[in-house]
Design brief:
With about 170 residues, the protein is mainly alpha-helical. It has helices spanning about 1-20, 25-30, 35-70, 80-105, 110-135, 160-165; strands spanning about 20-25, 135-140. It has a two-stranded parallel sheet with strand order 1-2. Helix 3 runs antiparallel to helix 4 (about 80-105), helix 3 (about 35-70) runs antiparallel to helix 5 (about 110-135) and helix 5 (about 110-135) packs across helix 6.
């Protein structure tokens, strides 16, 4: 009796899955067709290069201090050695702190990316939600980020609809 009840529940559950409508989007494709996204990416790359150069300057200074220390160590007193070692450690620490400030998990690059990308992502989400509401989709998957999709029919890809909804063709 239990087996029959479980089989009926599985059948009922699976039939409700079949009644749902699914769609796919390709976020890479959508983002590549939005000029604002490309501009934001370029801006992020420029800022990132600038900040990386600042970090590299400090790192190079620390390396130079260390090389000079190594070549002059035999001529230095213990007090001078300690001063030089402290200066090297301070410069390395300064470089590490600057790198963390710019590129850390909550760093300036993360904040800049959030401020530039969030409006674009919200706009895309709104367009996808509108299409879902109009066409009755229960689930939309991103084909670009999900490696678990082996095959998907192009018929259920709504990427071009999303771009049209956003005003891009």
């Amino acid at each position: 009796m239990k087996k029959i009840l479980i089989a009926m529940l599985v059948l009922l559950g699976s039939s409700s899955v079949w009644a749902q409508k699914f769609a796919l989007v390709d976020m890479d494709y959508i983002l590549k067709n939005i000029p604002a996204y490309e501009r934001a990416n370029e801006q992020l790359n420029q800022v990132s290069k600038k900040w990386q150069a600042e970090v590299e300057v400090l790192t190079t200074e620390a390396q130079t201090l260390y090389k000079n220390y190594q070549s002059e160590a035999v001529f230095l007193s213990e007090e001078q050695k300690t001063k030089r070692e402290d200066a090297i450690v301070a410069k390395e620490k300064e470089a590490a702190e600057l790198k963390k400030k710019y590129f850390g998990p909550e760093g300036e690059l993360y904040k800049k990316r959030e401020s530039l990308m969030a409006p674009i992502q919200e706009e895309i989400y709104g367009a996808v939600k509108d299409i879902c509401d109009q066409k009755g989709y229960s689930l939309v998957l991103d084909r670009a980020s999900d490696a678990g999709i082996i095959f998907a029919s192009p018929k259920i890809d709504i990427s071009n609809e999303v771009l049209s909804k956003l005003g891009y063709n």
